[in-house]
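Comment on the following before class.
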Amino acid sequence: MAVSNALSKRGPCQFFVFRLSSFVPNEFPDPDRIDFMTIQTIVTHPGGAHKDDFLACCLLAHLHGVPIERREPADSDLANVATCVVDVGGVHDAELNNFDHHQFPPDAPPLCALSLVLQDLGMYEDALLFCKWLRPAEWLDTRGPNEAAKLMGIPRTALADLNSPIDITLLNRFSKLTELLPASAIYQVMCMVGEDIVNYVRSLRQRLDYLKQHAQWWTIETGDEPIEALFLEQSDAIASDPSFGVYAFIDEQEKSNDVHALVYPDRRGQGYGLTRYEDCPRLNFSRIENEDDVRFAHKRGFVAKVEATDPVRLKELLEQAVVSCD
């Protein structure tokens, strides 16, 4: 159900949309191969707002650019494919753009309105993997604060402690409105949030696909257990942010318990950055600070910037930084 900005230049509330579920992620669909429909209104419940309905509306506002009405839906709304009904109405029917979860049985998976919208966009699995806040948001909305806190392994009171003025203000201002038009300040902020979520998930998926093809796994032999490192070769494709997606890639490859170090291009200059993965205690890069090709090594040992580019030399520097297991 994503929107092409190039195709949305119509009149007020006239935005072409399409479903993504049948397309390859990150591949923009061919307009000649898709069935277009018109989304005219987003309807969500009145009263208090929560993260799931707010964020679901953020995505939809970004993708469709149409008014949001905070009211109870009529049967005609639920039957109208041109009206997205979110977190209210007692119906989940993606074909009709109805995205409520409250009718699900108590033992159903913890899917909230945001989850259902992400599913319809073909982005849910990636969002669940990349956006660590999504699962707690689902738990909080579907299981309540006590159960959510247990599942998160934190005290119940910590949930309130983690609230920020950003959360409080946006949800409070959103909940007080009965209609949001695209020209309103809150609506425009919501579009920014939706755009950032979509861009983050899609760009991270693109990066992970790139890393799957180009990342190298190094094994550095030492006197003790070997050191495992992830190496990214210099490339224009990742030059603007070389380390973007590395942690998500390691998680996706189920290597979190195996990797000790990361070696990636230094975006501030020629050479590479060497860093401990998850602050692994087996490496201390201050041990290599006096090497001629080391520009910088942090005194606390967690990172170094080096001029070396030859993989053989980079492996030597990693080996020199190894701390004995004794």
Remarks:
- The mean pLDDT is 88.
- The two ends are 56 Å apart (CA to CA).
- Residues 107 and 121 are 25 Å apart (CA to CA).
- The chain has two domains: 5-206, 215-320.
